[in-house]
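Reply to dn_fold:

You asked what the input looked like. This is it:
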Amino acid sequence: MVRNLKIGVIGAGRIGKVHARTFSTLVSGASVGAIADTNGKAAHELASLYDVPKTYTDHKDLLADPEIGAIAICTPTEFHAPMIVDAANAGKHIFCEKPLAFDLADIDQALEAVRKSGVTFLMGFNRRHDVGHTRIRRDVMAGRIGSPELCHIISRDPAPPTAEYIRTSGGIYVDMMIHDFDLSRYLLNDDPEEIFATGSCLVEPEFAKYDDVDTAMVIIRFKSGAICNIDNSRRAIYGYDQRVEVMGSKGRLSTYNMLEDNTQFAGPDGFQEPRALNFFMERYIPAFQAEGIHFVDCVLNGTTPSCTGMDGRAAVVMAKAAALSAKTGRFVNVNEIG
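and this is what came back:
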């Protein structure tokens, strides 16, 4: 069995850079064997950072490379599903960043190609691999807090993206909050029943041109009766705000922000702490590493993926239900979406 998995990274943008670094420097048993991007200069510049030997401008050329055993799809969302089909047909194991796709029919076609090929598929929801979130999940499953009753997930970015990014992102529910939709299912070990969402443009009024919002809140009722509240903002002036709380019949589990350091100043005006880490590239480095290690373990050792294609589909269904709720002003049953 091959013990050094050569991974091809498709997409040399922001998230492609994260995974190129992860698989090149933080994951044993793997290396980045090639990078593909339609922007050849971007692919070459990223490859030079980590001594990656090959670059391509067409992902199909990368898939035809016999030395590449697996790929990491790090492109814009619109390309995910067709690239999954291409990779599955080429017999390459697949890691795919969120979201799986915009359209459920495209998702189903991609997952069917994966099923038929028998390749390993891991959905890229890195927050499942955060040590705090993993601990909450484990403790919930062990009954430490009894039956879960309430969940609150806070996810706020330090600054909004550009309007050009928003134009093709799919909207805050499918682009940003989709992480939290997946995390809610993971933490509660439950499936949603109905969703209510509302949002506003309070940071960047221009986002309204693209039928999007920058500030949003969602209430999810799960099949068990547990209720989860998620709030997202595209701007938190104090840094990247990531907090979780799950309360049950026997207690509460919480995670808090990671700060730039753990120094605290106390003086006559009170207590002062450093800022929260700036963004996901800093906050979730250990989670990306754990995710990469898990993917390689799944490919090399046959371990069952912790986040499947159906998990990715479920998160998109939740995002679509939230978008419909925000548009209609009512609770939406997820069965309405599919």
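The mean pLDDT is 96.
Hope that clears it up.
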